[in-house]
Input
Amino acid sequence: MSTPEFKDKMHEYSQWRAKLIQAIEMYHQWRDRYGMSDTYSTNTILNILTNLQADRITIAFVAEFSRGKSELINALFFAETGVRLLPSSPGRTTMAPTELFYDHQGGNYIRLLAIESRLENTSLAEFKQMPEQWLQITLDSDSPSQMQEAFQELVATKQVDRQVAEKLGLWNEREAATQGIVNPEKVEIPRWRHALISYAHPLLKEGLAIIDTPGLNALGTEPELTLNMLPSAQAIVFVLAADTGVTKSDMEMWLTHICRAHGEKTQGLAVVMNKIDTMWDDLAGVAEYEKSINSQVSASAAILKINENAIFPVSAKQALLGKIKADDALFKRSRLTSLETYLSSDIIKQKRNILMGTVVRDIGFLVNESSNLTGISLSQTTDQLNELKKMDFQNQDLMGKLMADTRDNQNLYMTNIENFQASRRVFIVQAKMLIDALAMEKVDLIIKNTKQEMTGNLTTYGMKQTMRKLFDNLRDLLHDAIDITSETHRLVKVIYKKFGDGHDLKGMEPPLFFIKQYQIELEQIFEQGDAFRASSKITMTQQSVVIDKLYSTLIANAREVIKQAHNDAVAWCQGVLMPLMNQIKDHKKQIESHLLLLKKINGSKGSADENIAALELELVPLKQQRAELAIMIKAMQLDSFIEDIS
Ligand SMILES: Nc1nc2c(ncn2[C@@H]2O[C@H](COP(=O)(O)OP(=O)(O)OP(=O)(O)O)[C@@H](O)[C@H]2O)c(=O)[nH]1
Ligand SMILES: [Mg+2]
Output
């Protein structure tokens, strides 16, 4: 037995995504075919294609140690291997945060990053780009037992001098004291800092990714995990154990790492009450069992301040065993199905909506423009033809006048283009100002100065002040860019209006550059940093490596936000006048082909009917182009976002 529902839904999702990719590729070819491609549209389309191809649905499991995270992952996703794939045992088991996914290029492997890498000034994200820095063990995906053995590395620890542990930021005197360990010479620490597992499992191949975290205070010691990896997961599964209820440390984790990280509404959250089987009492029977599960669920819901329905009572152990032994009754007792249903319906649906939102945002504008442009071409050509049909083709004087009018029209158009080109030159100067305001050189100089100041300042208070200054400087930089953006918007609106008036094109609105979103993101990074520092159990003097990592993560994230703003500003500046330029190109083509048509008719010896038939033929390619677009819009599922294109 396996998880048919999740598997089916995941398969359905990956097929849906593949179709979407195919439709966008077709649209790209359509633009090329009709000479509508430009650098801006090509980059936009290629970007979204790359993102869609690399897309994964990530589910992260977070909880105190021994709540059954790894067992739950085994039961949910890997039971058909017939073994307990991820190590799960009493006490602290998983030692390194582990990511499971499928790397189509790299094949089957487990990569392990040594714990000592914490001392290096390289982020985890950067390490992931350097496979040579990891110890790699090849996995045989056909041999669950070989994999199971290789996965034992996930629990590997080693004994080091206390000073070494301290230097690595892994020694916490207060926490050790609670376990009765005082002033030890040697300390046990994880051997690995992080593990990446690529495995050709059907679900992983279709884009599922799983993060298993150690209950061991990994979240407090690895800021990148807490601040970057967990918030970007599609869903977080928080696991409690029925036999312990919500303990003080569960609560602390819930408040600091789940509630805070879960600020984004688009992130799914499931709270699991695992180990319900431990509540079974042979003497008490089913009714009592039911009652004790319910009361544990209500008590936990009340403490966590969530709805009772949001808690899934399960037994991962029974589920895994039930699936491996194909024991339906046991699996049913595990109650895993409701959690599986939630993950396969809600989470996958949510992810689909998010992806579709990105497609609408990034491609919708281009498609709308294509739809407008082909619509205008078709209707203008039809009007012209209808006019022509009423003409007396034999009347040379009339035809001569018509040609002269069209030439006048052409001349007028040329003047308009010159005006437009003049406006465009003004825009280019303004756009350069906007792009310069967000130049990475400026950002990097601010960061460099901060880092220098920090090395000279060893007190935590001083470091905190320096961080504050960095964020203030970045805020100012964004502020200037926001002012310039407002000016640029004003200019662009004037250009659109002038152009629209000159060409009888009503209702054309320029796309806007939403620079304020970066301001919000920057504030969030700053707040997250404060929250992390405040929540961390670790006292700073002992944990300078953690604080170093925290600050470099925050700085890297802030830099990334401005870099994104800069890149988006460049793309916006390249693209914002594109619809007008495309209109110009198209209009020019139309006038030329109209002139050609008039010339042809003028010189033709055919009958009026023959001439009309020739005119009708002109419409065929335009109709065809539009019909093709309509099919692609449907295939990209953008039909509800684009005005009628029938
Ligand atoms: N009775 C019972 N035991 C379970 C269940 N799920 C897990 N366990 C046991 O609980 C212990 C801890 O499970 P793990 O999966 O290692 O827990 P974890 O949350 O991954 O723990 P760390 O890796 O240390 O963070 C193991 O001995 C499991 O066999 C369950 O549903 N019922
Ligand atoms: Mg574990």
User: Anything to note?
Assistant: The radius of gyration is 32 Å. The mean pLDDT is 88.
